[in-house]
DNA sequence: AATATCGGTTTTTTT
DNA sequence: AACCGATATT
């Protein structure tokens, strides 16, 4: 929509400006002219910069944006790349495919999936959906799910799919006489576990196809299947994508590797033309992959490090360029990282270096327990902020496993520090949100038995196990779907009036919702509103006495604002399109983008932290058994992966790194003594300045008590014998009510990220969503760190009984005409701001507001909790 | 059919 | 400690 020239500047005219500020290796990578390029990009070596410049360089040399496919692992990385490309080449960036593996595959399958039996409204099952399906299958086949847990079985199936092993092959090899979909089969004794896996795998795929559904791994595997079996499709994509870029290549699994090969047409037999850089040429596409084998941390999920190690053998005429200059960290931090990763065997030696100088030493701290560790971190954050002026958003706390966030969170709340927790239970995995989405899914795809059965009795309508069983039996007998069974409820034997009545009502409800959805397909937010009110989901929660349900209502309205945001940002929005974006979000997608400042300390797992950087990083839980994780300590290759994780963690820090540990840590409610992590020993001693070298208990045991500088301001805390959570009780934290804090705080204030899909915009983000025109949940101050407890008291908020549907989709009656550039407004969360832009889009009008330190936000007038001054 | 209670399991990391 | 599923109770 914008004229190209606006952002383009001289860049396209003068390619030299694309490389003039790069180092020799970077610029070689940008300019490299050839079929296959591996950029070995060490941490902080500017890989995104090189990747985007290389794309811009190609554009400047005559290739078309539409010929480019760039693949990342997270939506956030994709959005960031798109943004940076837009800065280089302007609106040309809109014509490229820049997306995750999974969304690229969805896009392909939506277009061409019918060739392999997928109708375009197909559902995408997440892990929970898949697990439900496995349980259903397990029950039908009489499988001992105690012994073979759904998780275990799904893990196996996932392995098969990541390796492109088809269920047909497995069946042929291990259970040749099983017919998927056959009724009455009982899994009795089997000679071989493989036999059981083969049968369940086949049955699982059968039911997925009956339900017109795919799981995450299917997105990749079935796209490969499509490209391999359908020449029109593979021809189309091979000629379309002449230049393929893959980020984080070390994390690709076998299926993804094959997918890239297929898309590029490497094995098509077409002859490569070495000079075929221009548009419309023949032969395999050019491939550029970027990665760092030292940052491979997803082997447990099927990532195959060999993909990157063997790149030169796999792709003809491949070239490798290493980027080893780090622009992020101090030499001290890099020395630590280099020393740790050097302990891994079988790796190509590589040394990062920096021109930034030595910097401050790494700070070490040995706490008595997790609470004290967290207390130390909170006090350091406070000190850094007040004494040294470090912004909260420039600090991050990282840990191995999500469970560790608990005590850290407590300490942050206690110290009144603003924080933001990334990950944990995802927004879309919350029960109430999943319920609402299950309705949408069932509307879009009535064959989706898993989601249909999920909502059958949600909210409670008197349809229990018996009713479900009757319908399922009928559907099975007649080889039809669960909902089709409901359609014929009067023909079901054993149906009593007491069941038939609510069942009929459910059928009618679904018909009405389906009709409504058909008429409002382009307005997902209205469909959401309709579902929430007509189904009774919202009402049930509003009527509830359970204080947790208040935040559930919050989450549901947030779902609706996410839908509103989606239809705002997406030109041709559909309900199915909305469901896609909800299915494919990652934790890291909720993080604020590069240019946004959340004003909060970020807390996340090391896995989530990959690709990010912070001036100050706290690496916590540096204990044997915590990190490295106990389950990874036995196995050499798993330990190597833990070490790479440590490498990732250390290299996130730009200026200051803290490593902390606890001598005692409670796991499963049990206090355990923890040894210092071996990774601490692997960091050269002189790089760490220990503020507290040993925990109190360790000191007594060790005998020698020499004078280390130990400003032991927390010493008092852990002296009690009971370390567990109760030791926290004497602080301002009422132990018993904590759970409620956690819920309402975490879910609505800090966890419920709203940025999703393409979204770096933040309409819904924390906009506490105007509810029936009175701002809901306003008891919370915008800044985190301060928790306004929502006890059972504010039940008064149950009032808006009046037509919740219209209330949710209505607006707060602000007129865009009343807003002008330069006007001042206040926002419930961000505070005072100045309008810098207005866009009149009728109902969906947008104002862009500068909130100073809180950044510039685009707000949808209709839903934003703002007031004009 | 819905709710209460007990007991066993759980935590690696996620598109 | 928290979550799930199975069992018992209404």
Automatic annotation (TrEMBL):
A cellular component term, taken from the record's GO annotations: DNA helicase complex
Annotated stretches, region: Disordered: 739-809
Annotated ranges, domain UvrD-like helicase ATP-binding: 20-330
Keywords: ATP-binding, DNA-binding, Helicase, Hydrolase, Isomerase, Nucleotide-binding
Residue numbers binding ATP: 41-48
EC assignment: 5.6.2.4
UniProt cross-references to Pfam families, sorted A to Z: PcrA_UvrD_tudor, UvrD-helicase, UvrD_C
Xref: SUPFAM superfamilies: P-loop containing nucleoside triphosphate hydrolases
A molecular function GO annotation: ATP hydrolysis activity
Record-linked InterPro entries: DExx_box_DNA_helicase_dom_sf, DNA_helicase_UvrD-like_C, DNA_helicase_UvrD/REP, P-loop_NTPase, UvrD-like_ATP-bd
Domain annotation UvrD-like helicase C-terminal: ranges: 331-611
Keyword Hydrolase: yes
One GO BP annotation of this record: recombinational repair
Residue stretches of biased makeup (Low complexity): 745-778
Catalytic activity: ATP + H2O = ADP + phosphate + H(+); Couples ATP hydrolysis with the unwinding of duplex DNA by translocating in the 3'-5' direction
Keyword Hydrolase: yes
PROSITE patterns documented for this protein: UVRD_HELICASE_ATP_BIND (PS51198), UVRD_HELICASE_CTER (PS51217)
Family affiliation: Belongs to the helicase family. UvrD subfamily.
PANTHER family, alphabetized: ATP-DEPENDENT DNA HELICASE SRS2 (PTHR11070:SF2), UVRD / RECB / PCRA DNA HELICASE FAMILY MEMBER (PTHR11070)
Name this protein carries in UniProt: DNA 3'-5' helicase
Organism (species): Bifidobacterium moukalabense DSM 27321
Source lineage: Bacteria, Bacillati, Actinomycetota, Actinomycetes, Bifidobacteriales
């Amino acid at each position: 929509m914008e004229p190209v020239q606006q952002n383009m500047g001289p860049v396209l005219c003068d390619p030299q400006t694309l490389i003039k500020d790069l180092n020799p290796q970077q610029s070689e990578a940008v300019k490299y002219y050839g079929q296959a390029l591996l950029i070995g990009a060490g941490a902080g070596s500017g890989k995104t910069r090189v990747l985007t410049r290389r794309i811009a360089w190609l554009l400047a040399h005559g290739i078309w944006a539409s010929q480019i496919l760039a693949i990342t692992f997270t939506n956030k990385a994709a959005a960031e790349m798109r943004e940076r490309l837009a800065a280089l080449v302007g609106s040309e960036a809109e014509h490229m495919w820049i997306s995750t593996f999974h969304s690229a595959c969805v896009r392909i399958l939506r277009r061409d999936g019918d060739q392999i039996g997928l109708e375009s409204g197909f559902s995408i099952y997440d892990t929970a959906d898949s697990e439900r399906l496995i349980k259903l299958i397990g029950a039908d086949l009489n499988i001992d799910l105690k012994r073979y847990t759904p998780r275990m079985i799904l893990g196996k199936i996932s392995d098969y799919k990541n390796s492109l092993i088809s269920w047909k092959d497995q069946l042929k090899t291990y259970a040749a006489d099983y017919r998927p979909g056959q009724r009455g089969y009982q899994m009795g004794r089997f000679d071989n576990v493989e036999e059981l896996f083969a049968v369940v795998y086949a049955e699982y795929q059968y039911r997925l196809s009956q339900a017109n559904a795919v799981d995450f791994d299917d997105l990749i595997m079935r796209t490969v299947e499509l490209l391999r079996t359908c020449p029109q499709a593979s021809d189309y994509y091979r000629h379309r994508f002449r230049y393929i870029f893959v980020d984080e290549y070390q994390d690709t699994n076998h299926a993804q590797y094959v997918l890239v090969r297929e898309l590029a047409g490497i094995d098509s037999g077409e002859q490569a033309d070495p000079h075929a850089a221009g548009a419309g040429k023949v032969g395999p596409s050019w491939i550029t992959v970027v990665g760092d084998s030292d940052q491979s941390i997803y082997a447990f999920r099927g990532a195959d490090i060999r993909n990157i190690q063997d790149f030169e053998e796999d792709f003809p005429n491949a070239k490798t360029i290493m980027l080893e200059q780090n622009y992020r960290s101090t030499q001290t931090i890099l020395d630590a990282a280099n020393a740790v990763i050097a302990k891994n065997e079988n790796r190509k030696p590589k040394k990062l270096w920096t021109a930034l100088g030595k910097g401050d030493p790494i700070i070490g701290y040995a706490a008595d327990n997790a609470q004290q560790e967290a207390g130390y971190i909170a006090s350091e954050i406070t000190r850094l902020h007040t004494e040294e002026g470090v912004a909260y958003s420039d600090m991050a706390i990282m840990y191995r496993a999500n469970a560790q966030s608990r005590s850290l969170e407590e300490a942050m709340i206690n110290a009144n520090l603003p924080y933001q927790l990334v990950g944990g239970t995802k927004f879309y995995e919350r029960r109430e949100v999943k319920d609402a989405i299950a309705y949408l899914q069932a509307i879009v795809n009535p064959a989706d038995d898993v989601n249909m059965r999920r909502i059958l009795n949600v909210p409670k309508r008197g349809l229990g196990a018996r009713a479900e069983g009757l319908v399922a039996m009928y559907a099975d007998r007649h080889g039809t779907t669960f909902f089709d069974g409901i359609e014929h409820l009067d023909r079901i034997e054993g149906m009593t009036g007491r069941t038939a009545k609510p069942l009929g009502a459910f059928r009618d409800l679904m018909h009405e919702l389906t009709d409504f959805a058909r008429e409002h397909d382009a307005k997902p937010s209205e469909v959401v509103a309709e579902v929430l009110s007509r189904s009774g989901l919202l009402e049930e929660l509003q009527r509830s006495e359970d204080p947790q349900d208040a935040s559930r209502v919050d989450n549901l309205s947030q779902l609706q604002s996410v839908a509103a945001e989606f239809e705002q940002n997406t030109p041709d929005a559909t309900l199915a399109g909305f469901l896609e974006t909800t299915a494919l979000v990652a934790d890291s997608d909720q993080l604020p983008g590069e240019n946004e400042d959340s004003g909060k300390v970020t807390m996340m797992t090391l896995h989530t932290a990959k690709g990010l950087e912070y001036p100050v990083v706290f690496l916590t839980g540096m204990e044997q058994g915590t990190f490295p994780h106990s389950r990874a300590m036995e196995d050499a290759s798993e330990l190597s992966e833990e070490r790479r994780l440590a490498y990732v963690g250390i290299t996130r820090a730009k200026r200051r790194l803290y490593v902390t540990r606890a001598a005692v840590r409670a796991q499963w409610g049990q206090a355990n003594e923890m040894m210092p992590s071996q990774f601490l020993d692997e960091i050269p001693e002189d790089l760490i300045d220990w503020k507290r070298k040993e925990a109190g208990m360790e000191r007594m045991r060790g005998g020698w008590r020499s004078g280390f500088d130990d400003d032991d301001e927390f010493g008092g805390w852990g002296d009690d014998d009971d370390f567990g959570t109760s030791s926290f009780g004497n602080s301002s934290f009422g132990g018993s009510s904590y759970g409620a804090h956690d819920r309402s705080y975490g879910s609505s204030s800090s966890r419920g990220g709203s940025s999703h899909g393409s979204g770096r915009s933040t309409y819904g983000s924390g906009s506490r969503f105007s509810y029936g025109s009175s701002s809901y949940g306003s008891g919370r101050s915008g800044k985190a760190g301060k928790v306004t407890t929502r006890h059972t008291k504010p039940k008064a908020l149950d009032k808006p009984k009046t037509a919740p549907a219209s209330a949710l989709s209505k607006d707060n009656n602000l007129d865009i005409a009343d807003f002008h550039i330069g006007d001042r407004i206040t926002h419930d969360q961000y505070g005072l701001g100045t309008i810098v832009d207005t866009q009149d889009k009728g109902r969906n009008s947008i104002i862009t507001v500068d909130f100073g330190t809180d950044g510039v936000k685009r707000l949808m007038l209709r839903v934003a909790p703002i007031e004009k001054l």
